[in-house]
Amino acid sequence: MLGFPTQKQYLIAPLCLIVIMLLLEVTKPLSMQWLGFIPTDIEKGEVWRIITGQVLHTNFNHVLLNMAGIVLIWALHGEYYDTKHYTLAVLSSLLLVGIGLLLFAEYRSYAGLSGILHSLIVYGGVIDIKRHDKTGWLLLIGVLAKVLYEMIIGPTKYTEELIQAGVAVEAHLIGCIVGLIMGFTYLYVYRTNKH
C-alpha cells in the first residue's frame, strides 16, 4: 500500500482514463449531448450511455476532483493493476454501477466517475485484506463510514458548489457494493486458479 509504481504497465490505463475525461470535457456540450447518462435515452436503446455518461462531468472542477481520485487509487493500489486488469476493473465498474444507477436511482441525468472510484477503492481494499495488509480493513471501514454519513447526513455543500450539481450519494453506495462484488469475484477466481 502507498507504493508508487511508475512502470509503464501501471501508468498507461489510468493516464488514458484521465485523457478521455479531459477530451470529453473540452468537447462539451456535444459530448454530453451524444454520450451523457440520460435514463430516458438509454431506455430508447442508446445503451452506450450507461458507460460513457459516467466519464463525463458537470464542470472542470468535477474533472479535477475525479482525476485526484484516480491518482489516489494509483498511489494506494497501483501495483495491483497492470493495463489489462485496470481496464477490466474500470469497464466492469462502469457497466455495473451504470446498471445500478438505472435500476435503483432516480436521476434525470448523471455525470461523474465517483461511483467507479468508490468501487475501485473498495476492490483494492479487499485485495489488501487478501494480501494480509491490515490497512485494507481501515480503508473499507473508512469508505463505508463516509458513504453511510453521506446517506444519513448528506454530502458537503462545498462539494456541491464546486461541481455545480448535487452529489450523487447513491452512486457512491452502488460503487461500494460493486467493489465488494468485484472483490469477492477476485477472491473466488484467485482461489479457483490456485487449486
UniProtKB/TrEMBL annotation:
Entry EC no(s): 3.4.21.-
Source species, domain of life: Bacteria
InterPro entries membership: Peptidase_S54_rhomboid_dom, Rhom-like_SP_proteobac, Rhomboid-like_sf
Keyword tags: Hydrolase, Membrane, Transmembrane, Transmembrane helix
Subcellular location: Membrane
UniProt domain Peptidase S54 rhomboid: residue ranges: 45-187
Class of this enzyme: hydrolase
Membrane protein topology class: Multi-pass membrane protein
Transmembrane segments: 12-35, 55-76, 88-105, 136-153, 165-189
Gene Ontology MF annotations: hydrolase activity
Identification of the protein by name: Rhombosortase
Organism: Psychrosphaera aquimarina
Taxonomic lineage of the native organism: Bacteria, Pseudomonadati, Pseudomonadota, Gammaproteobacteria, Alteromonadales
